[in-house]
Amino acid sequence: MKTYSFEKLKVWQKSKQWVIHLYKLTETFPREEKYGLVSQLRRASVSVSSNIAEGSSRKTPKDQRRFYIISYSSMIEVLNQLLIAEELCYIKNKDLQESRVRIDEILAMLDALTKSLRI
After folding, report:
1. Which region, left, alpha or beta, applies to residue 89 given φ > 0 means left and ψ of -120 to 50 means alpha?
2. Residues 6+ apart with CB under 8 A from 67
3. pTM, whole model, 2 decimals?
4. Cβ atoms within 10 Å, residue 104
């Protein structure tokens, strides 16, 4: 089976693991948030790894960079939504802090990947 270039990227691997973590974290949210905050969090999280994958397939560094920046922005969106979720008592502060560590790691990797592309 063929392995695509994005599958070798550590940042993509971490962001994919993040999606699994976030899906499990949001399982405990209230039912009424299924189409609200849960949906937003899940879509934004999936967007991070999806844009890394799509960006890796682009031919020019400028085009790749654009997708990595979108991934970065989506992860910031996730952080914002988790801060809201914590204030609404949907997640514990401990879960927020653990998530922030993972988010910070992925953001740093995305930043490094973006800066590595000379345009």
Report:
1. left
2. 51, 52, 54, 55, 58
3. 0.94
4. 12
